[in-house]
Amino acid sequence: MNNLQPIAFDGIEIDKPIIIAGPCSAETEEQVLSTARELASYGIKIYRAGIWKPRTKPGGFEGVGEVGLEWLKKVKEETGMKVSTEVANRAHVEAALAAGVDMLWIGARTSANPFAMQEIADAIGEISPDTPVLVKNPVNPDLELWIGALERLHNAGVTHLGAIHRGFTAYGKHLYRNMPQWHIPAELRRRIPNLPIIIDPSHIGGKRELVAPLAQQAFDMGFDGLIVESHCNPDCAWSDKTQQVSPDVLNFILNTISLRNDKCTTENITLLRQEIDRLDNDLLEVLNKRMRVCREIGQYKKEHNMQVLQTGRFDSIIQSRVKLANEMGMSTEFMRTVLMAIHEESVRQQLEIFNKR
Ligand code: PEP
Ligand code: MN
């Protein structure tokens, strides 16, 4: 995807950071317009509102449908903002583009579906290949599926593409509604360096109070902007009310977070990076030494007819190391992940010894 164009409206590239804000769903004309007026007064240039809402279960609010497009037209006329909405099939694309919607996004449930993606890509490619399209990550943490969705649009001739990181589904209760798994958008950046990637702190966090820290994290990591859910009366929103912020709160958040500058000199961090290189080498040495000891233990177990897996021992390793890691300020989840990976490799190496004649 080397001929991607930056996000632009009518040939004019938009400034970074890209900030998109607006309610989860368009509910009423009054709600759409009053939210838009407030956001415009704070300098927001791109408005979002879901017209067709993909709901996990039937019976929830499934969006107002095409009438909402009329309200978005009024937002454009009255505030001058560009407007965007989610599309999930060809009929949505046709209706949205006919109503003058300036930018489309593909939701997380749709980007996971190659049939739907192909249909949407073909429709946009035929009707308006210059319209910017942002692709949310699929609900499951599958980078190839995300890239595949982008490629379908690109192959259909859509030139102004971007990605939205909105976190990934995880089973069970967690701090986040959708786990950020930052290494996945980071890998997307490495694979397609010229693709703008913006962050959706509302759907990652699922809670109002997580919007600001997640937005800051997005900028700290050098992503290109944000799409934030903002509603004139968040507590009464018809969908996603726990994660929406009012326009004045959004304005406060945007004024408090610090933008990072990727253009300033990197001399100071060069030294720190050299230190990281040295530390990584040390880490590899230590890991290698540990594996050597594990192989010696494997040899002993084999000679004494013992089994490879000694669960009690592994449990006590996890407990003591996690406690130590916590005392040093590292998280339980991180330490567990590291120990599990090391353990898996140790077992693999010991089994190799067992299988040798
Ligand atoms: C949305 O942006 O309102 C939405 C439905 O998001 P997602 O596809 O990320 O769940
Ligand atoms: Mn939402």
Describe this structure in words.
By secondary structure, this protein is an alpha/beta fold. The chain is 50% helix and 11% strand. It has 13 helices and ten strands. Strands 3-4-5-6-7-8-9-10 form an eight-stranded parallel beta barrel, surrounded by five helices. Helix 3 links the parallel strand 5 and strand 6. Helix 12 runs antiparallel to helix 13. The longest helix has 37 residues. It is elongated. It binds phosphoenolpyruvate and manganese (II) ion. The site of phosphoenolpyruvate has 8 residues, from loops.
Report a brief summary of the structure.
With 357 residues, the protein is an alpha/beta fold. Helices cover 50% and strands 11% of the residues.
